Amino acid sequence: MPNIIVNEIEFYYESHGSGDPLILICGFTNHLEMWRKFIPKLSASFEVIVFDNRGAGRTESSPPPYTIEVLADDVIGLMDSLGIQKAHMAGFSMGSLIIQSIGHRYAERIHKGVLIAPFSVLPSTALMQAHSVAKLFQAGVDPALALETMLPWIYSNDYLSDPKRVVRTIDTLLKNPYPQSPEGYTGQLQALSKCDMSGRLSVIETPLLILAGEEDLYTPFYEAKLLREQLPNAVLKGVPGVGHMLYIEAEDITVEGIHAFCTG
Amino acid sequence: MPFAPVNGIKLYYEAYGKGRPLVFLSGFSTHHLTWQSFIEPLQDDFQLILLDNRGAGQTTAPASPYSIDTMADDTVALMDHLKLDVASMVGSSMGTAIIQTIAHRAPKRIDKGVLIAPFSKLPRTSLLKTMTTGKLLQAGVPLDLVIETVIPWLFSRDFVASPEKVSAKKEEMTKNPFPQSIEGFLGQMHALETFDSSQFIRQLEAKFLLIAGEEDLSTPFSCAQFLHEHLANSTLHPFSRMGHMAHAEKHGEVLALIQKFVKM
Predict the structure, then answer these.
(1) How far is B160 from chain A (nearest CA, A)?
(2) pLDDT tens-digit profile of B214-243?
(3) B65-96, pLDDT tens digit by residue?
(4) Minimal CA separation from B63 to chain A, in Å
(5) DSSP-derived secondary structure letter, A203
């Protein structure tokens, strides 16, 4: 599968199907396997590009710090290398921040965007949580336990009410085939902690669909509502009973939302 | 310092002032010092009773699972010991579960209840968070690090965004003069896990004031809304941009609300 040098970093990406280009952008610590189940459905209508952000998955890490602007420049660089002038984009969590940055600075490169579990500035509560998890790992806490502390932040009551599913989820996280390097974690976390798009939303004219879980504790629903109020060309679809991991908890709503919005 | 022998344990309490009895009930893991700053402004008008729940503070922490019913009975037994027929009550978080239960099991003993950050059933997210906190403590993770994982669940985003406030709170929590024993932690956690007032709240006759943070992550605002919809006689006072700790972060406003509601 292809690697490509963009902005002096070796990026891992995959391209599936044909049609209008649709780029799927991962969140903090994620890699492109998060989109694997989406690819068959979306590649029937689009040329789907999935890739790993700088500092995650099979893409190289550069020394920290990173910024959201650098991560957005990486997407543009990848598009340049692939000869893509303009694309639809869907981004999860930090990926939604990257899309906002592209809509702000490279408006001519984005057609429509889907912001999944989005925010314009990471709430201080989520930031403190991310730092404390890093400290648990550094302190040598059992990785299964350190990961368990994250789950109630990102999954809903319904999802967590099945203890077997909790165990399975931790197991899947432990078996991550492409674990993030410490410098990738630090770099991406610094990018998140320094980015505040809230003052720039009113000039982003990209048509945007906001998909947000109404029970999200990590980036609470107030962030989605603020984006809806401030972005001039955005619609909001709240999903009741769902947390931050919307693309897992409401997989069909997410994939159908992307498909309908970008074909419509 | 006074202890009352109740239900086979020694229950620690403090009494101040004269007037109508006003009983304060602490949340999970915490003790009477939660209410320290409420004593001076209220003791001229009320007989204040502060107590440590079973498993916390200086009250006995038996090594068996507790229930909210038992903690409600402990409180009523303390009222018997002090020869108080009826009292108004103020509680936060788990304390609101105890108050609801007293209103159900001993309706003649309570006329009014102020419920801060209340719930009818603890969300699974909050329960899992509490369980993992217990595991971190049992695994010997340093207390200051465990506290760092807990603070963003409790305090507002404005509070957490202030390094000075976070650092002062960490210091205060680390220097807790009455840290909870692991028996007390597990016993109280069992009580939280098994509490569900949804079947009886419609029958409660006491008057309730519900004080809730709109951005509470531990017991989300929807928990207070559920109670407000089902209680026969309740007023809901929301705090915007507020988390689980309105009584700490908005002390003056909460104090004024308590005074007005209880004197009415």
Answers:
(1) 6
(2) 999 999 999 999 999 999 999 999 999 999
(3) 999 999 999 999 999 999 999 999 999 999 99
(4) 24
(5) G
In chain A, what residues touch B161 (CB-CB under 8 Å)?
124
Is the pLDDT score of A219 beyond 70?
Answer: yes
CATH number of the domain bearing residue A203: 3.40.50.1820
Q: Please, which residues 118-157 of chain A have a Cβ atom closer than 8 Å to chain B? A: 123-129, 131-133, 135-136, 139, 141-142, 145, 148-149, 151-153, 155-157
Please state, in angstroms and rounded to a whole number, the distance separating the CA atoms of residues A44 and A145.
40
Q: Chain B neighbours among A 166-225 (CB < 8 Å)?
A: 166, 215, 217, 220, 222
Chain B residue with minimal CA distance to A158? Answer: B124
* pTM higher than 0.80: yes
Q: Regarding the domain delimited by B3-263, which CATH topology (the fold level of the hierarchy) does it fall under?
A: Rossmann fold (3.40.50)
| Secondary structure of A131-186 in HEC code, one letter for each residue | HHHHHHHHCCCCHHHHHHCCHHHHCCHHHHCCHHHHHHHHHHHHCCCCCCCHHHHH
> Tokens 């928990």 belong to which residue?
B223
Residue of B nearest to A130 (CA): B149
Structural domain of A122: 3-263
- Tell me whether the omega of the peptide bond preceding residue A65 falls within 30 degrees of 0, making it cis: yes
B128 shares contact with chain A (CB less than 8 Å)? yes
DSSP class of residue B215 equals T
- Domain count for chain A, please give it: 1
CB B56 within 8 A of CB B184: yes
**pLDDT digit string (tens) for A229-240?**
999 999 999 999
Structure confidence at residue B64 as a pLDDT band (50, 70, 90)? confident
pLDDT per residue as tens digits for the range B166-218: 999 999 999 999 999 999 999 999 999 999 999 999 999 999 999 999 999 99
Chain A residues in contact with B149 (beta carbon < 8 A): 129, 132-133, 136, 149
